Amino acid sequence: MSVAVQAALGLLAVLCLLAATAQARVVAQTPPLQVSVQLKWTHQFQFAGLYAALAQGYYRDAGLEVGLLPGGPQVDPVQTVVLGRAEFGIGNSSLLIDRAAGKPIQVVAPILQHSPFVILARRESGLETVRDLPGHVLGLEEHAAECLAYLHRSGVDIDRVKMVPHPGNVLAVADGRIDAISAYTTTEPYDLIQAQVSYQVFSPREVGIDFYGDTLFVNEAFAAENPEAVRAFRDATIRGWHYALAHTSEVIDLILRDYAPQLNHLKLGFEAEEIKRLMLIDIVDIGYSSPTRWHHIAQVFAEAGMMPADYPLDGFVFENDLQPDQDWLYLTLAAVLAVLLLVSLVAHRFYRFSRALRRELEARRALEAELSALARTDELTRLPNRRSFFERAEAMLREAQDAGRAFSIVAFDIDRFKAINDTWGHAAGDRALEAVADACLAYAPEDAILARIGGEEFAVALPGRGARDAAAVAERMRAAVAQLRGAWAAAPDMSLTASFGVGATTGGSSLDGLISIADAAMYVAKRAGGDRVSVMPEDAALSGA
Question: Which domain of life, per UniProt (predicted)?
Answer without folding.
Answer: Bacteria
